[in-house]
Amino acid sequence: MNVHRFSLHDVPARPWKNHGGTTRELVSWPPGADLDTFAWRASVATISADGPFSQFPGVERTIMLLSGDGLRLRGTSTNHQLDTRGAPFRFDGASRLHCSLIAGPCTVLNIMTRRDRGATHLDVVTEPTTISATDGMVLIVRGDWQLASDSLTAGCGLWWTASPPQQRLQPSGGPGELALVRWEPR
Question: What is the DSSP letter of 10?
Fold first, then answer.
């Protein structure tokens, strides 16, 4: 088993080419893969200006609002307002979309998957759960969570390959929320 822990505070923010925001890459599989070669990728993006969303042909994308008032995505066959935290929105990465901020910058979780390499599933979890996905990622969105003897706080998480941690993850000391990503390779 290969488990990697992360904290958003320690992941460098990289500016977008169009200067409309920044991205903190949490995992890109396989290791060392770039935007042209990843099988699946998870990042947290801060969107600070209106503008086009990057196109990724052959990629399925899922975004989920983490903070801020949200955004609206518009395109030929898409008109979606992402303004509810914890509500994932899935769309075709090849779509030509324009992003408009609702009321200032916002932060989203961004999951990208090459369709020919596998599938990802994003679940929002608020109750105790056992991690059973062979490959995946957890990002703590709200509250404190306990994984065996390890404490995870908001903005922290872990990703793993080859086998699940097979441990119970549960909120501690109050309500909590986490994003659980399951990767299923083809």
Answer: G
